[in-house]
Design a protein that fits this description.
Blueprint lengths: L27 H7 L2 E5 L6 H14 L4 E6 L8 H19 L16 H15 L4 E6 L6 H16 L8 E6 L7 E4 L2 E4 L12 E3 L5 H15 L5 H11 L3 H13 L14 H14 L2 H9 L3 H12 L8 H10 L3 E4 L2 E4 L2 H11 L1 H4 L18 H22 L6 H14 L3 E7 L6 E7 L2 E9 L4 H16 L4 E7 L12 E7 L2 E7 L1
Parallel strand pairs: 1-4, 1-7, 2-3, 3-4, 12-13, 13-15
Antiparallel strand pairs: 5-6, 8-9, 10-11, 11-12, 14-15
Helix pairs in contact: 3-4, 4-5, 6-7, 7-9, 8-9, 11-12, 15-16
């Protein structure tokens, strides 16, 4: 069977195109050889389970360790008494499947009498009976309910500190977050384990990074080597640019292009072009597979909202909890830090987040896209802005009251309107970043690019900086016109009178200023 780009579950080298996961976390082997306990964390579907399973097989095959990966994802009840026997049974089953004869653990039933020490006693007995050091990877450990999580962490710590008595030589806790950020319910409040964590023995906390540009191109080249189908250079670059190297997105784009049942370019004699990649991106966004849907669901969380909202408007938060909230949102994979700038993690997430947040608004807009398309097939941006202002005067007040992302609501309403029109045959590139005080939009339609910048009014300097930023951006794109839309949520101007439009000139560029 030919290999394919995988988007469902761990990758297997015999079935899937894949980048050897150990390359993205090369320091793991050294930690295991040292006999330490450590943490691996990364967002969902970045290759954690693929890494663990491949590493387990490799360590055991070498004959130096007995290594096993056990998933804790399914244990959702908060009762230690109920869950601990099931966890031991799961560990026994995983070891029986992954390890050769003679390395299997003892039967788990005799160890279940006291759940508070069951795991420690079980691992002790198993280690004592092995001729090789035992290595255990606990996958999805942060999915456990608080009491069960704390019990496991305490038992691992007790066993670790009792060495050289028999106990696993090395162990890793693997999940989306660092152990210090695990949340547990204490007296009905969600608390971080923090520095007093019952697992304060960890030697390192490692993050599984995304693919580099070179690794993304290498993955695509595997398909070319096996099928002869080439990705044009700019198409391969576009896969990396849009995905930011996020492994699931890279595979999802490539699969939609070449190996899915509904692939856009199924003919192996036809090269994949840059336009095909952009079409694949639109399909992913519209289809909203489980990976994207799970991220979208997080947008409702207050901690995530506080972070995403500031990025959407280019604001700076003074909330004392912001750094912790940002770390949490970054662990979910939604945001990143690049060159010291905090931003949405990649362009696909940057596209889907505002679309999801404005879907209800977008579907309520009656204006037809054809009204704004000029005879030459380009978009008449000034006519589009007039249409938006009419919509804004009639509906803005109600929409601002009803939207969850209150501070970013003006930006989101405009983006909803713009998306409704551009959907007919163009695309929008969005640039959001903390501290810029703006959101930049580049509209591609009919072969023309237009720059639109959105700002929240924060005094006279808002316009001055806006003129400079729009003019500079327009000149970079070879345009002689740019658009600056300034929203003032605190304006006392009656809604029916809002929407003053003025043309200014800045560095040889006409800047159309809209005060909404």
């Amino acid at each position: 069977m030919p290999r394919f780009f995988n988007t469902a579950g761990p990758c297997l080298a015999e079935n899937h195109y894949m980048i050897e996961p150990g390359r993205r976390l090369s320091q793991v082997r050294g930690l295991i050889d040292k006999g330490v306990y450590f943490v691996i964390h990364a967002p969902r579907q970045t290759g954690k389970t693929t890494l663990l399973r491949n590493l387990s097989r490799e360590l055991t095959r070498e004959g130096l360790y007995a290594a096993v990966t056990v998933s804790l994802e399914s244990f959702t009840e908060a009762s230690v008494e109920k869950m601990m026997p099931q966890i031991l049974a799961n560990l026994e089953n995983a070891a029986g499947y992954q390890l050769p004869a003679g390395m299997e653990p003892p039967a788990y039933q005799p160890f279940t009498a006291n759940p508070a020490i069951a795991l420690k006693e079980y691992l002790t007995s198993w280690s004592e009976g092995l001729s090789l050091p035992l290595v255990v990877f606990f996958d999805e450990i942060d999915a456990l309910p608080g009491p069960v999580l704390i019990s496991i962490l305490r038992q691992l710590r007790d066993g670790y500190t009792s060495r050289p008595a028999p106990f696993p030589h090395s162990a890793a806790l693997v999940g989306m977050r660092d152990v210090r950020d695990y949340k547990v319910d204490v007296r009905n409040e969600t608390k971080s384990l923090g520095t007093a964590s019952p697992f304060n023995i960890k030697d390192e906390s490692l993050v599984l990074r995304d693919f580099t540009r070179e690794e993304t191109l290498e993955l695509l080249e595997q398909h070319t080597a096996e099928t002869g189908q080439r990705f044009e250079d700019d198409a391969a670059e576009e896969v990396f640019t849009l995905s930011g190297g996020q492994p699931w997105l890279v595979n999802a784009l490539a699969a939609q292009l070449t190996t899915r049942y509904d692939a856009l370019v199924p003919d192996r004699s036809v090269r994949v072009k840059k336009g095909n990649v952009r079409d694949a991106k639109e399909i992913l966004i519209e289809r909203r597979d489980t990976h994207l849907d799970s991220l979208v669901d997080k947008l409702r969380e207050e901690r995530v909202k506080k972070v995403i909202e500031q990025i959407l408007i280019g604001g700076i938060s003074v909330d004392p909890t912001y750094d912790g909230d940002f770390s949490y949102t970054r662990d979910l994979g939604l945001v990143a830090v690049e060159g010291g700038v905090r931003k949405i993690a990649n362009p696909i997430y940057g596209e889907i987040i505002p679309r999801v947040l404005t879907h209800q608004v977008q579907t309520s807009i009656p204006d037809e896209p054809a009204w704004f398309v000029a005879k030459d097939g380009t978009l008449n941006i000034e006519k589009l802005i007039d249409g938006f202002l009419e919509f804004w005067r009639e509906n803005g007040e109600v929409l601002l009251r009803g939207m969850t992302y209150q501070e970013a609501a003006p930006h989101l309403v405009f983006m909803a309107y713009l998306q409704r029109i551009v959907n007919s045959g163009g695309q929008i590139n969005r640039e959001f970043a903390i501290g810029t005080k703006r959101a930049d939009l580049v509209v591609h339609y009919g072969g023309k690019k237009d720059v639109i910048e959105l700002k929240l009014w924060a005094g006279k300097k808002t316009e001055e900086r806006g003129f400079e930023q729009v003019a500079a951006y327009a000149k970079r794109l070879g345009r002689d016109t740019g658009y600056l839309i300034i929203f003032d949520p605190k304006s006392k101007t009656p809604w029916e009178d809002r929407g003053e439009v003025e043309e200014m000139e800045q560095d040889g560029v006409k800047v159309v200023v809209v005060r909404a």
